[in-house]
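Please, why this fold?
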Amino acid sequence: MATDLAQTPEFQQQLGLFYAAWSSTELMLDYAIGKLLKLPHEQTHVLTSGMDYGRKIRLLKHGWADGAGQNKSIAIGCLNYFRSTTKRNIFAHSFMITSPTTVVFIERGRSEPYYVKDHPYTKEEFT
């Protein structure tokens, strides 16, 4: 009997790498918000600890609208990239169905109209 893909060390390593990279991204966003608002670290933590990713992005994009120097367009481009291409919420909040060859993340909508959407990946696609 073949091992389900989600139970393999390779898949678990890839999922762990995704979460580690995402954690670093969240940390940098929080740091950038604190720097933008000129807040001490403790106040930045209080402010950002309850914020979802979308709100952090909007705050930075609008805060940088009047500044951020020559790197503003690069920074905003990175924020847009993260928002449009990552599947963090799908990976973090979905149920998984797994077989030896695929993992399907079952996305569940959080507001009306409620929905369910499958996001299937082979090992190669997920990697």
Notes: The helical segments are 9-37, 41-48, 53-63, 72-85, 88-93, 123-126. The two ends are 23 Å apart (CA to CA).
